[in-house]
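User: Thanks for the earlier help. One more: Protein translocase subunit SecE. Can you show the sequence and predicted structure together?

Assistant: Of course, both are below.
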Amino acid sequence: MANPVQFISQVRAEAAKITWPTRREVVTTTIMVLIMATLAAIFFFLVDLGIRTGLAALLGAVS
């Protein structure tokens, strides 16, 4: 098992390697995620609407 002091120094060394995104990158990716989530919601709404309409027409024709 490693020495706790050595472990802490290794953690600090690894944390120093982290490159954080810029504010512009965060805003850009956030907007992209929101757009993609909206497009996915619209797509699944339309698919659901089509299935619901088709099922209603099929059940109406059968009964």
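User: Great, one quick takeaway?

Assistant: Residues 21-62 form one domain.
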